[in-house]
Amino acid sequence: MMRPSNALPAVYLCREIVDFRKGINGLAVLVEEALELDPFSEQLFVFCNRKRDKIKILYWERNGFCLWQKRLERARFKWPRKVDSDVVTLTGQQLNWLLDGYDVMRLQPHERLHFRSVL
Q: Which of 37, 44, 51, 83 has the most crowded Cβ, counting Cβ within 10 A?
């Protein structure tokens, strides 16, 4: 099974839907022009189609681009909609949650507490 590492520091998710006829070249141009990010940065760039049943992940690996795709047979990906920017930054763990069907924008950990003493 091929899955992104949970240890990835940042994954860039394109919030807008993408024409899935685009391949490596079209997605790399989209990263550079529309998202204003560096497609050669060795980060993962995630795209979704209109039906939200397919995801493509583009990334640069040393000497060339790689393109990974997942297609759901019945379900839909929970794609973030109510976000101000065109790009959403996720962790590797959040990307894997998204691939597993979780709504990553609603998963929120408990508030971090800070104490100085137990007395």
A: 44
pLDDT digit string, tens, across residues 46-63 = 999 999 999 999 999 999
* Mean predicted confidence (pLDDT) in 3-18: 86
pTM: 0.83
For residue 36, give every residue at least 6 positions away whose Cβ sits within 8 Å of its Cβ, in sequence order, or none: none
Distance of CA 37 to the CA centre of its chain: 14
CA distance 7 to 31: 22
Other C-beta atoms closer than 10 Å to the C-beta of 67 total 14
Strands of the 44-48 sheet, one edge to the other: 64-71, 54-61, 44-48, 11-14, 87-90
Which DSSP string corresponds to 16-73? S---TT--HHHHHHHHHHTS---TTSS-EEEEE-TTS-EEEEEEEETTEEEEEEEE-S
Contact in structure between 14 and 86 (CB atoms under 8 Å): yes
7: left (phi over 0), alpha (psi -120 to 50) or beta: alpha
